Amino acid sequence: MSLMTQSVGMNCAAFTILYQKIRIEPNALLFSSCGGAFGVVVGLQWVAPNLPPSESKLIFVRCAPVRAMCTECRIASLTLSPHTTPHARTTHATHLS
Fold first, then answer.
1. Considering the entire predicted model, what is its pTM?
2. Is residue 51 over pLDDT 70?
3. What's the 3-state SS for 10-74?
4. Under 8 Å between Cβ of 56 and 47
């Protein structure tokens, strides 16, 4: 059931990206696809046969929130940077003059 949920969710995300014509960075797509393919091969060949299902679920449950928090921190650091916010740029410019 969880595999179906993830599959449906990822397909909906892909459809939304294509439907809304969101620009995609080709290098990001290439590198993440290569890393994903490598991870699938390694996981299916060596990890899955040697790891009980309960442990694999535990690893996923532990890793997914950490990845989400890292992504959120990265987004927050980009939006709080004085070089990216218009208000900070105008404030910085007025202090210089």
1. 0.49
2. yes
3. HHHHHHHHHHCCCCCCHHHHHHHHHHHHHHHHHHHHHHHHHCCHHHHHHHHHHHHHHHHHHHHHH
4. yes
